[in-house]
Fold this sequence. Notes:
Layout: H1 2-18, E1 28-38, E2 41-49, E3 54-60, E4 63-64, E5 71-72, E6 78-85, E7 87-88, E8 103-104, E9 112-121, E10 124-131, E11 137-143, E12 148-154
Parallel strand pairs: 1-7
Antiparallel strand pairs: 1-2, 2-12, 3-6, 4-5, 6-10, 8-9, 9-10, 11-12
Amino acid sequence: MKKRLTAVLLAVLAVFTFVPMASASGHAELTNIRTGKHDGFERIVLDMNGLPSNSLSREATEVSNCGSGNPVPVGGQEVLETMHFGAASYDENFDPTYTGPRNFVPQGLTNVKGVAITCDFEATLGIAVGYENPDSWHKVFTLTNPDRVVIDVYSY
């Protein structure tokens, strides 16, 4: 009986030793949104602690809040909707890491007319950028040191 109990205890110990415990997964945290005008393009920078695991973008005619489904107004004739997975505007304790405006008109830009957070739910962060020139091109990419997501809107 003692040998059997010892074998069972060793088996249980082996499971807990070799199978990692489930833990809350981390995510990138939005800390600031900056905008700037450059020769030929306008830039939106999402300052982050960490980087999203993946980002997607698309042109949309309108955008809505991912939680409520309510429309989110964004200035401009066109809208670029971006979704960043593994990112949020809060930390692991649900304390905000970004406390700026969630929908605003950037100052000093001529093509970009609005920036709005459209989703901030279960580590999915949605950012919409409204722009005026329907012939604009856009590029979304990440940079490090410091970590940030960059959205460039080109108008020729």
